[in-house]
Amino acid sequence: MVRSKISASLMAAVLAGMTLSGCSALRGSDDDDKRNLERFTAEQIYKRGEYELENSRKPEDAVFYFSEVERLYPYSEWAKRALIMQAYGHHRAGEYEEARGAAQRFIETYPGDADAAYAKYLLALSYYDQIDEVGRDQGLTFQALVALREVIEEYPDTEYARSAILKFDLAFDHLAAKEMEIGRYYLKRGHYAASVNRFRVVVEEFQTTTQTPEALMRLVEAYLALGLNDEAQTAGAILGYNFQSSPFYEDAYRQLRGRGLSAEVRGESWLTNVYRQMVQGKWL
User: Gene3D superfamilies of this UniProt entry (predicted)?
Assistant: First the structure.
C-alpha cells in the first residue's frame, strides 16, 4: 500500500515536471517565442497558451498561442481545443466580437462535439456581457436573448442551460426597464398617452419581470391625469391582486383614494382583458 502511494506521487511529480519543462522550453523572449513556434509540438504551444491565460494579465497573449496551434496543426485534436480556448481568451480580454467569431467557427466546424454547448454559451455570453446601462440602445439585449434561448433549447440538460435561464430572465428584465425609463420620461413631462403606451408594453409583454408592479402603478397615475378613471381603477385592481404587499400598490391606492375611487375592475378596456388573463385565468 505504501509503495503504491509513493509510486503515484512520483508519477505525478514526473508529469508535472514534463509539463513545466514544456512551458519553460517556450519561455524565451516573447519575440523568440512567436518566431520559432514551428519547432514545438501542438501540445507544447497549447500548454504555453494555458500558462499565459493563468499567469498573464493580458489574455490576448494566450489567444496568440491558441491561434498558432490552429494555424500550425489545423487538423489536430489540439487545434480543436485551441479554438474553444480562443473564444474564451477573447471573451476574457473583452474582445466580444472576436469571441463570437471564434465560438461560431467552433460550432460550425465541430457541431457534434461535447464542447459545442460551451461554445454556444460563450457566443451568448459575448452578447450578454455587452448589455450596457438601461439608457443605451437595446439591440445587443435582443441578440443576447436570442442566443441564450438557443442554449436553453438546444442543450437543456447542461449547466450552461441553467446559467442561460438566469441570464435570460435578467436580460428580459433589462428590456422592460428600458420601456419603464421611457414611460417615466413621458409621464414626467405630461405626455400621458405616450407614457401609457410604454407602460402597457411592460404589462402585456413583460408580465414576469420585476418592472410590472411599477408599470401598473404608473398606469394608475397616467390614467388619473387623463381623467380615465375606469382604466385607473382596473390597473389598481390588478396591482392589488398580484402585488398587494408592494409599495407601488400603496402608492396607487393612495392616488385612487385621493380621488374618492377604489381599486376595482371597471368598464371594458385592454386592462380588463389583462385582469381576466392574470387574475381569472381566462385567455381570450
Answer: Tetratricopeptide repeat domain
What superfamily would CATH give domain 175-284? Tetratricopeptide repeat domain (1.25.40.10)
CA angle 243–165–217, rounded 5-degree value? 20
Spell out the residues 6+ positions from residue 36 whose beta carbon is closer than 8 angstroms to its own: 28
CA distance 267 to 234: 8
Give the residue carrying C-alpha cell 494579465: 57
Tens-binned pLDDT, residue by residue, of the chain (284 aa): 433 333 333 233 333 333 434 454 455 445 555 557 888 999 999 999 999 999 988 899 999 999 999 999 999 999 999 999 999 999 999 999 999 999 999 999 999 999 999 999 999 999 999 887 555 667 889 999 999 999 999 999 999 999 999 999 999 999 999 999 999 999 999 999 999 999 999 999 999 999 999 999 999 999 999 999 999 999 999 999 999 899 999 999 999 999 999 999 999 999 999 988 877 665 43
55-92 in b/e form (b: 16+ CB < 10 A) is eeeebebbbbbbbbbbebbeebebbbbbbbbbbbbbbe
